[in-house]
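Feature request disguised as a bug: please show the residue count (225) next to ABC transporter ATP-binding protein in the output. Example input:
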Amino acid sequence: MTTLVVDAVSVAYGKDEPVLRDVSIQVEPGRILAVTGPSGAGKTTLLSAMAGLLRPRAGSVTVDGVALRDRDHAVAQRVVLVPQDNGLAAILTAAENVQVALIAQGAGPAEARRRMVEAMDRLGLAAQSDQLVEELSGGQQQRTAIARGLALAGAVLLADEVTSELDATNRQKVLDVLRDEAARGAAVVFATHDPEAAAACDAELHLVDGRAELIRGYSDLPVPA
Ligand SMILES: Nc1ncnc2c1ncn2[C@@H]1O[C@H](COP(=O)(O)OP(=O)(O)OP(=O)(O)O)[C@@H](O)[C@H]1O
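Example output, currently without the count:
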């Protein structure tokens, strides 16, 4: 089980003023942390720092006590990011997008195909597998990106606004997938604008102007019977 710790992190773009200031949070395995806040508050910036894409100007992001150096290092630590813009290759099929990611992670072709089929099926996308991404709707693309993240079976799953284009049924499907990922032991972080989706998570970190407040902590959870 893997724990990701953000310790007193400040992040800036170039020489600009920091857009995240002194943010600390522990992301627990088996739990879902919601990251909320208004547009521009710094949610994507925080997930990018957790994913090793942005290096903090101050503080550290550690995975099981090891400070992340860059994205390659984070991938080696099995930190999976489902980005806000889905990050899919438009000229590949949905299935190819998932399989390419699995093969890059070291899976053989047969295993990559098996895990792709499983993940696409879980997201209700079996019929869309062989369609080019550019032919899919926004919501289908978003679910394909989640299927890819799910298939990668990370120790940490960072999901950035992954329900923004989904109807109620598919939003619930994605929340169920995030819950299942936590149940198998992943530490899950879910950035969202949606108060109902945030309420379904185990804890909530609220960002305003780059400052963070833990408005609901893991310790507030009811003790299991
Ligand atoms: N590449 C960049 N270069 C410079 N500034 C950036 C860059 N990306 C984001 N910012 C700035 O950082 C701040 C936080 O942006 P971020 O995308 O993290 O917010 P967010 O909470 O994810 O917003 P949204 O809900 O709209 O996706 C904003 O002021 C934004 O303008």
